[in-house]
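Chapter summary example.
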Amino acid sequence: MERIGFVGLGTMGAFMAANLLKAGAPLTVWNRTFGRTSGLVAEGASEAASAADLAAASDVVVVCVSDTPDVESVLFGPGGVAEGIRQGSLVIDCSTISPDSTRDFGRRLAEKGVSMVDAPVSGGSEGARLGTLTMFVGGAEPDMARARPVLEAVGKTITHMGPLGSGQAAKAVNQVVISGVYLGVAEGIVLGLKAGLELHRLVEALSGGAAQSWVLANRSGRMIDDEYPLGFRLALHRKDLAIALQLAEQTGAMLPLAMLAATLEDRLVAQGHGDEDMSVLAHAIRELSGLA
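The structure predicted for these 292 residues follows.
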């Protein structure tokens, strides 16, 4: 495997970088917040002093940060990747950001002779830890082929969606779909609670039919307990929905369910729930139903 540089060691990135190490990748790491690299260094990674230094030591640079401005900063800001990266290198952006910005970043990197693919991920912290992430990839075919060994070390379902930016558009669709599933499961749990049903038995019954889903299997327990330990941060999903709703506006798509989810998430963020798992949507349904 080529020399890999990994920028962004948050909830997702730290697990992804660890899985690259397990796959035998020569790995250099850097994080904007001090103190996140020590565990990986102890396992054999090298630590760079800056994103530019990391890029200079790498053939492929993977970026996994929170939002569009963060990607722009680590790529093109002072001491950023673009300052140190060598011609012929590849950037893989696993962040979830704007498709338009992705294409702009790709053009700017191409001026330096650097290729880029966008590969936003789905699967939460569990998928990142287990190496089972779903990855939506946009970019030219040769760049996708070059990126694939890196992506296979951290993900299970890897789909090339088309040219650069297509991965981000596909991730926007994913976030729209899961908002509906989370809301559906939340409403079902609350209705079962109001109807006096034994909820764990209800989930078992639902799991044998058409209502079965990953959310029902993995998040219904949190909704029943009204406790939402972090898996995928609500505030990040709200950020992702903003990208999806902007894409919908550009394309003329109407997304009433996503708009409802965004409204409920805004309410939850304002109440201080932004750093909880997005299954906290059930708490909003509880409140509307007089249960909280």
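To summarize the output: The chain has two domains: 4-163, 169-288.
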